[in-house]
Amino acid sequence: MEQRKDTRFPVKFRSSFSSVNVVAGDGTLNDLSIRGCRVFSLIDVKPGTALQLRIHASDDEPPIQISQSVVRWCRAGSFGCEFVNLSSDEWARLHHVIRELEMDPYKKPQENTDAA
Q: Are 52 and 68 in contact (CB under 8 A)?
């Protein structure tokens, strides 16, 4: 069994995706890592499909634009994407989201302490 190199975070971000003349749709992104994610969608996407992927990590900011991701697997109602190409600005935004997710368990006790 293959061991994952990067930590995956259980998130529920809105996402949208498109591919030139092949497929387009919306989904719920979860199992986010720095290199990829899982998307739950009613749209059937085949392994090997190259997609542009938009991750709506926050309602206050525009979506993170992954200019190229490749579908690596597909199961009933979901598919897995590997991030292949994104701009340096979008890479920095993705890193920021991952850092926030890594810190989240440590933030919660501090927030509770501050509120007390």
A: yes
